[in-house]
Amino acid sequence: MAGYFEPADGGGAAIALDEVEISILRSLAVQLLELIGPGTEPAAGGSHPETPPGEGAVGSTDDELAGIEAVSWPPFSDGPSEPPSDPVLARFFPDAYGPGPAARPDEGAEPGSDEEARRKRDRAASAEFRRYTENDLRARKREDGLAVVRALDSLTPGERGAVLTLRPEECKQWLGALNDLRLAIGTRLEVTEDDDELYSLPDSDARKPLVMAYLWLGGLQETLVETMTP
Fold first, then answer.
1. Region Disordered: which residues (predicted)?
2. How many CA atoms lie within 13 A of 216 on its CB side?
3. Closest listed residue to residue 221, CA positions, set 2, 5, 1
4. Between vectors from CA 226 to CA 221 and to CA 227, what angle results, nearest 5°?
5. What integer is the mean pLDDT of 65-79?
6. Residues 6+ positions from 136 with CB-CB distance below 8 Å
7. Model-level pTM greater than 0.85?
8. Which pLDDT tens digit goes with each residue over 80-129?
9. Bridge partners of 165?
10. Are strands 13-17 and 6-7 parallel, antiparallel or unpaired?
């Protein structure tokens, strides 16, 4: 194993990680948890998954995890009705109906037209759908992120790092968290399908560490999917 997932005996997946890789993954996962938070915006004091990997990594402390795990929603409470203003959260929790987060609500719709009426209906339906689903979606993403942090905290790296072994159910949580991390970084970098510039940045470019993390997360995600595919 060399920094990517391989099948583990008895099912699941395994990966060898050195201390730097563990620190990067954990730092990104904690930032993701802080960003998701409850409500429609990042948690108070939360950061975005855009800190260069390896910088500002959060140490493994019981108080820190306790603070993250304590963030929750009142039972049976309604979720928000408006989409998040943060671009990453808007990608995580898009409107269920309508043109999507990148479109302006009334762009191209004449006042009083059928199109304007349809968009108003879409916004109302999206708001209602969001009220009953977003909290659950956030909770699931938080559980995925916490699973990553807990698994990394269970490791005791030696001179050659440590081998992390995931059970099949943990693989699903890691896959969800890796997907969210990659989507978050890709949104911050404004990655597009035809964007080749990011893949040939000079080392002096401030975006280079995030691009490297983005590509590495893609490799982790791909190899984890392969281990989960019969």
1. 40-126
2. 15
3. 5
4. 100
5. 59
6. 79
7. no
8. 778 888 999 999 999 888 765 555 555 666 777 777 788 888 888 888 88
9. 14
10. antiparallel
Residues 153 and 221: their CA atoms lie apart, in Å, by: 20
What's the pLDDT band for 54 if we cut at 50, 70, 90? very low
Domain ranges of the chain: 6-90+135-228
Taking the CA atoms of residue 38, residue 47, residue 181 and residue 201 in that order, the dihedral angle to the nearest 10 degrees is: 160
Q: Token digits for 35?
A: 């960003």
